[in-house]
Fold this sequence. Notes:
single chain; alpha/beta; eight-stranded mixed β-sheet; two-stranded antiparallel sheet; 12 helices; 10 strands; disordered N terminus
Amino acid sequence: MAAGSATMAAISILIGLVVAMAIASAPLAEARAFFVFGDSLVDNGNNNYLVTTARADSPPYGIDFPTRRPTGRFSNGLNIPDFISQNLGSESTLPYLSPELTGQRLLLNIIRMYKQLEYFEQYQRRVTALIGAQNTQQLVNEALILITVGGNDFVNNYYLVPFSARSRQFRLPDYVRYLISEYRKLLMRLYDLGARRVLVTGTGPMGCVPAELAQRSPDGQCSAEIQRAAALYNPQLTQMIGELNNQYGADIFIAANTRQMATDFVRNPQAYGFITSKIACCGQGPYNGLGLCTVASNLCPNRDVYAFWDPFHPSERANGIISQQILTGDTTYMYPMNLSTILALDSRT
């Protein structure tokens, strides 16, 4: 098993929950919470406080962050939640596990724990102690939630090693259907916990990241098998989201087609100002796709012209492109509406 895949497997069992809220100077009725469930793509630093080899707390991570220091983000700078927070008018979030998270800062944070929904409930109890039950319910009902589902279940589970337990248990189409049924339960549970605006992203072009090219591609082409998983999964996720919205009689869940968003610049990097979408800025081995990004790794001088920062994660600039499509993209990318439309509609209520 390659070192990079083994390391990423260590974080695949973690689910994140980001909570960002513009509360300091705004009355509760005008504030908006921001929750993000996900993996290392959205971690703002909980790996700093966990016993794990999957860490982003040392250089060159954070080289382009405003502080020019590592933050625990798997990025050279900002990640997707950071960009969305900016559009919500919120500051970037603290890790939930940070000792700095106390009092009012409990309303501006990230949670990344094993039993994610149980801890979401615990979070609500903690906030209730600060602002009361009625205000907490209002906060959660009016919150924006971003949930990223699917990627780790393929790359770090089904395809982690040849003849993995999951691949022996399920044919790929059956595994996709199984995941969709599990995520349906997760989204329904989020609704039961008060979620009313949920952005749901599927997988990116998983077979095209530098780590997969290094391990599976003799000619630099995306892994056809892993790409097949994404092609099966994402349309079924969107269909399931539509069914849930029909069930609830409202556009609770919004599908963000991050696979298409990223595929655009993976297939035609020059059109987006990148010189490559195959080679990671930071790494080693073929395509800089092996292992982790460390101080001993190859490091590109200009991160803005690389689509991928490390073997697995987009660069800050690529994160910005994806975030802009979430904000303003048409129905090719966002269904049934984009984030700007959501914010405009919700501002009238």
